[in-house]
Design a protein that fits this description.
Length: 315
């Protein structure tokens, strides 16, 4: 049977590179498109001799042209960590708007299925917990996180417009905090931050009073859900995340236990508009995709800590 061809924008990033690996293992051809603004060649270097893998370095906000057949376009290109999108707000808005437009037009031209990698940040600082897909969110359109939240909300709206008006086969995944190997230790997200600090003898930084919550999903669970969604027939948004909600102090303690560090915890002011609670309602993913996350926090963090240890040792 002819192999199906998947274009992954943002394929050299954390999630994108795991998707490249997974889809190659599942007999797809993969075209990875990335401008390396936050992604790294090191994430895909091991694939460079694989004949089923191709890397194209380009900015998808400028254009996205692929020769030949395409069966899927998975649009994962974005600035994704609060540090990155605060540093590059215009690039963030461009990739969410123009980048999404270019990726949707590619899917339309090629009659390919399109997936939008959206985020739980579309719910903003939620007034409902857990967050269901029907919830419209509580987002500050001009706040310090607006470049990310609004670019993703726009991207979802554009995806639905291509679906409703042009009949493009689309799906939208609202990803909740996901962690695992290949996150960058300097990217500002809480898991790599705390692990790097724990492993390098620095004080561990908790923002605010540490009572704000997140729900952390291990990367292999997320990729499994994405694969199920790619092959499902469902166009409304679907939450993917682990409903096991933890506050930041609890997270810090689990990381302390795993690393065995006695580093002290220090507190810094909470960044503006930081959501106070975050927990997915995954009823829809369970019903439509038969998906539930399997990796518990301690197991996933242990794997992640081991990976960070090996990369810190190789520096
Ligand atoms: N990891 C999470 O917890 C999480 C949660 C919610 C949503 N997401 C979404 O999943 C996607 C991947 O996130 P990630 O955590 O892997 O982040 P990441 O920064 O590791 O990956 C994003 C990739 O997109 C690339 N990119 C950015 N702008 C581009 C452009 N204009 N042209 C081409 N490539 C570009 C970057 O170089 C990078 O490789 C993003 O869309 C993000 O918003 C991630």
């Amino acid at each position: 049977m002819e192999r199906q061809i998947v274009v992954i924008t943002g394929g050299a990033g954390f999630l994108g590179s795991h998707l490249c690996d997974f889809l190659l293992e599942h007999s797809y051809r993969v075209v990875c498109v990335d401008n390396l603004i936050t992604g790294r060649l090191a994430n895909i270097e091991h694939l460079s001799n694989n004949k089923l893998f191709k890397f194209i370095q380009t900015d998808v906000s400028e254009n996205l042209k692929i020769r030949g057949k395409v069966d899927f376009v998975l649009h994962f290109a974005s600035l994704a960590s609060p540090v990155d999108y605060a540093r590059l707000p215009i690039e963030t808005l461009k990739v969410g708007s123009l980048g999404t437009l270019n990726a949707l037009e590619l899917a339309h031209r090629k009659r390919a299925k399109f997936m939008m990698a959206s985020t739980s940040e579309v719910y903003g600082d939620p007034l409902q917990n857990p967050q269901k897909e029907e919830y419209w969110g509580n987002v500050n359109p001009v706040g310090p996180r607006s470049m990310y939240d609004e670019s993703k909300r726009f991207a979802e709206a554009l995806t639905m417009a291509f679906h409703r008006k042009l009949g493009v086969d689309t799906c939208i995944v609202r990803i909740f905090n996901t962690y695992g190997p290949r996150m960058k230790n300097e990217d500002g997200r809480v898991v790599p931050n705390l692990i790097t600090q724990a492993l390098t003898g620095q004080p561990m930084t908790i923002f605010g009073d540490g009572k704000q919550t997140r729900s952390f999903c291990y990367v292999s669970d997320l990729i499994d859900g994405i694969y199920r969604l790619m092959n499902a027939n469902y166009s409304d948004p679907i939450n993917l995340g682990n409903p096991n909600e933890k506050n930041m102090l609890e997270l810090g303690q689990v990381i302390k236990d795993i690393t065995g560090t006695s580093n002290k915890i220090i507190f810094q002011p909470l960044p503006g508009d930081d959501p106070k609670r975050r927990r997915p309602d995954i009823g829809r993913a369970q019903t439509i995709l038969g998906w539930v996350p399997k990796v518990d926090l301690k197991e996933g963090l242990t794997k992640t800590v081991n990976w960070f240890k090996s990369t810190l040792n190789n520096r």
